[in-house]
Amino acid sequence: MSRGAFIVIEGLDRSGKTTQTAALYEQLKEVGKVAKLLKFPDRTTAIGKMIDAYLRSQSDLDDRAIHLLFSANRWELASEIEKDLKEGINILCDRYAFSGIAFSASKGLPYEWCRAPDISLPSPDLVLFLDISPEKAKERGGYGEERYEKEEMQKKVREIFKRIGEEMNVATAGAKWVVIDAGRDCEDVAKDVWAHAEGLIEGTSQPITRLWDTSE
Prior knowledge:
Distance between the termini: 23 Å
Organism: Tetrapyrgos nigripes
Radius of gyration: 16 Å
Strand content: 5-15%
Largest sheet: 5 strands, parallel
Family: Belongs to the thymidylate kinase family.
Protein name: Thymidylate kinase
GO molecular function, one term: ATP binding
Strand order of the largest sheet: 2-3-1-4-5
Structural class: alpha/beta
Helix content: 40-55%
CATH superfamily: P-loop containing nucleotide triphosphate hydrolases
CATH architecture: 3-Layer(aba) Sandwich
Number of strands: 5
Number of helices: 8
GO cellular component, one term: cytosol
């Protein structure tokens, strides 16, 4: 295979994204595959630290400003993602551009405007969307600790994610979007995640595509 695979795990807050991304990473290591684990927002960068303060409600920013910061945070790592993929490294990513669109559009910003800053980012080969009802997520530990973890907000976010997934699967290029029921036991969800990701762990011969780029 000519390059590594790019797999993104998305979902509502408390859907188990971080747990499942880490579990998949460990499975890849166990079978001897080279992989790198990423998480957005990357709170370690200068931009990421501003985002972190905002998410913890320690600062306030205009909705458009925070959206652009989230996008800039992804662009900070875009060239590194491409470089790693070309070197045969599989990339596993906890959240990506789709979260940025879903959360900002849920606050009332225009959908197309929300998508625009992320056009031409490296496109994942597979997006696994962990679907859970906000009511079920609310039962899980830590819910409500960050700014967006409110039930009504999560319902809106879920609807936008549904729209993104439908559009991604209709598009001729870009990621395959798979919905996984995340309201079940962690082990059952992990089995589903592995079943969908396993076919990509050897890498892919497909060229790297770019999100929503219609110029090709």
